[in-house]
Write a structure and sequence with these properties.
It contains four helices and eight strands; from the N terminus they run αβββββαβααββ. The chain is an alpha/beta fold.
């Protein structure tokens, strides 16, 4: 029988799910590049993936309603970063432990650069993991998120959904037989990209001007054939 854990994200069963999620997103992350990336995790032991195309990681972890890690701030407030700061934002089970998941989602989209990638992982509410999660969690402090609702919110924030995939075994302690993807998996991986701002080219249109024949024009202006 499973035992209650003070930190469920440090438990052996959830570490296995995290490994399945990491394998499921590995190919997508390897294609990310840029100078800065942000990891917001549910555990202080979270470490960013090794991505040679990304130069620097900022790390935050959620603990009792506050952010710790590289910076300290309230999880109820804006992320302490400027707009468009990161080419990659990875929310690793963070939505399950923040006081308001919608605030973190909005802020993650804000600090993501146009063309950048956001990756969200979590426990799927419709799986055998949900009862285990709620049994091990403190009442009223953690909430599981439905991926389709997250997709809708991201689309409203100007994000394009690239992939949503369930991963891991259906119940804690189950086996995926080495396959990270499962249609009934207990975890999910959501990958979205922030749309680039539209750039409208300015085109010069020639305008006919009727001027007296003996008048001088500025350099670069052609006399209308109608004059």
């Amino acid at each position: 029988m499973f035992q209650r854990h003070h930190d469920i994200y440090a438990s052996a069963v959830l570490r296995g799910l995290l490994e399945d999620e990491a394998r499921a997103m590995a190919a997508d992350l390897q294609r990310c590049f840029g100078t800065h990336a942000l990891l917001v995790g549910a555990s202080p032991d979270d470490a960013p993936p090794a991505l040679p195309m990304l130069g620097h990681w900022a790390r935050l972890n959620v603990n009792n309603g506050d952010f710790g890690g590289d910076l300290r701030a309230s999880a109820n407030e804006s992320l302490p970063f400027v707009d468009d700061a990161f080419e990659l934002v990875l929310l690793r089970h963070a939505l399950e432990v923040v006081p308001d998941a919608s605030i973190l989602m909005f802020e993650a989209a804000r600090v993501l650069a146009p063309g950048g990638v956001m990756v969200v992982t979590g426990i799927h509410p419709i799986s055998g993991w949900a009862p285990w999660f709620h049994w091990n969690s403190r009442a009223g402090q953690r909430t599981l998120q439905m991926p389709f609702q997250l997709c809708y919110g991201l689309q409203q924030a100007g994000m394009e959904i690239e992939r949503v995939q369930r991963t891991g075994p259906f119940w804690p302690g189950g086996s995926t037989k080495g396959q990270p993807a499962s249609a009934l998996g207990g975890g999910f991986v959501l990958i979205a990209r922030k749309q680039r701002r539209s750039v409208l080219p300015v085109r010069n249109h020639p305008v006919s001007m009727r001027v007296p024949a003996n008048s001088a024009l500025s350099a670069g202006i052609r006399r209308s054939s109608a004059s």
